[in-house]
Structure formats: C-alpha cells, structure tokens
Amino acid sequence: MRYLLYLFLFLIVIASCSEHSDNSDTSTTQNEQAKVEMQVEDSESSTEMAEVGSEEEQPQQNSEENEVPKADTYNVAELKVIYTADIRIEVIEYERKMADLEKLISNHDGYIVESTRDNDSKEGKRTGFLTARIPQERFHIFMDKVEAGVGKLLNSNVSGQDVTEEYVDLESRLHSKKVVEKRLLAFIEQAEKTEDLLNISADLAKVQEEIEQITGRMNYLQNKADLATVHIEVRENDVSLKNKDLNTWEATTQQFVKSTNFLLKMVSTIFVFIAGNIPIILLFGGLITLGWRIIKKWIKQNR
Q1: Is the pTM of this model over 0.70?
Q2: Nearest C-alpha neighbor of 143 from the set 130, 152, 154, 134
Q3: How many other C-beta atoms can be found within 10 angstroms of the C-beta atom of residue 134?
Q4: pLDDT (tens digit, 9 = 90+) per residue, 17-62?
C-alpha cells in the first residue's frame, strides 16, 4: 500500500513537470511568434515608406522632365526675333520696278500684305507703297537684292525686336495653366454637390480663357518672328525736257509758248472780270453819267 502511494505521488510530480514544460514551450513559441510579427510589421512599414518616397520622387522627376526651360537656358536656334525693314527707292522706270519687286517677293516665298499707288497731281510723278512678309531665313538675302536692284536707294532701315524671353515666359505660364486645367477637370468628375460643381466650372472657364489668351499671344509672336515685315516705297523720277540741254530753236519755241499762254491768261482774266461784274459796272456807269449831266447843267446856268 505504501508503494502504491509513492507511485501515485511520483506520477503527480511527473505530470506537473510535463505541464510546466508545455507552458514554457507555449510561452516561448508565443514570444517567438510575436517577434516575427513585429519584424514583419517593421518590414511592411519600411516597404510602405519606400513606396511613398518613390511616389514623391517620381512626380518630382516628372515635373523636372516637363519643366519648361527658363529664359536664360535657350540656345541660338530658339531665339525669337521680330524683324522690320523700311526701304525708299527712286527709279525712272516706275512700272518695271514695281513688277520686279512683286516678282522678287514671290521668288523668296513671301507675300504682299498691302499695295498702294499714288499719282502726284502737281508734278505728275507716281509713288508706290508695298508691304510684304518675308520668311526670316530669306529676309537678309531679300534685302540685299532689293538694295542692289535697279534704282537709287534713298533710305534703308532694319530693326529687330527680341521677344525670346516673353515667349519662354508664355510657354511656362501655359504649362502651369494646363496643369491647373487638368486638376479642375478631375475635381469636376469627383464633385458630388451642385454648388461645388458650379464653382469648379467657373474656375475652369476662367483658366481655359487664360489658356486661349496665352496661346493667341504665342501664335502672334511666332508668326511675327517667322515672317519679317518689309515696307517698300518706290518714287518715280521722271526726267523732263526742262532738265535737258536745249538748243536755240527749242528755247525760242518754249519762250513763245510761255508768252502766248501769258497773254491768253491775261485776256481771259479781264474778260471774266468784265463779264462777271456787268451789273456793278452798269450801275456805277449810270450814276457817273447822271452826275456828270447835273454838274454840266449847273455850270451852264451860272454863266
């Protein structure tokens, strides 16, 4: 009986030891699992931070790629210069010169914007005005040919206006406005309230109007820079007979004509004066005649 009691106590001790070992193993396993979970969480958080960092860096890189170059970074090929020229020419063969200029403009891929021809009523000389647009790459060649052409060059003036900085600034503004437009379009798709939709639509309309204005100004500057404007004035110099050396017979003939014209002009002036003033002449003539008779009669009576 005593041995049975010892055996029972021994089994109880062994059972308790095994239970303690199981609990210790379980706690150890739980601790190890917690450590693994913490490492997983740390790795996930580090991964998320890396992803966020990459997302932040990518827009920055894209913005750098899409960034418009500043005005101080453009090269010579990107220069925007507006050329304007004024030329005055004196010629003898007026019609031929005008035709040659029109042909020269066409041969240099240009076109005429305005053409005007005037006649001087006093001197009988003609003057022509041409306004042409010439591609910039052929502008200087065209100017050289006009100045070296037939006729006397009276004046030639060429001026250039550098609008590169303004054009680059407009490009930068246009890029910014398009980014804002894109965001507003995204906001419109996400808007749920009518009030929000109306406010965003108003802002979008304003931005789009500014985009149109900027685009229009850029197109204007581009056109002015691509095509130079040339103003040409052609004056006729008609060499008349009086500028030539005249012989005696020709000089006598001209003087006779001048004298005859003078006499005819004087007779015409007197005739016009008398014919136009007949009523006044008759009135004063009658008064003078009547007065003379009265004076003559008074003299006879006093003798």
Answers
A1: no
A2: 134
A3: 24
A4: 444 444 444 444 344 444 434 443 443 343 343 333 333 333 443 4
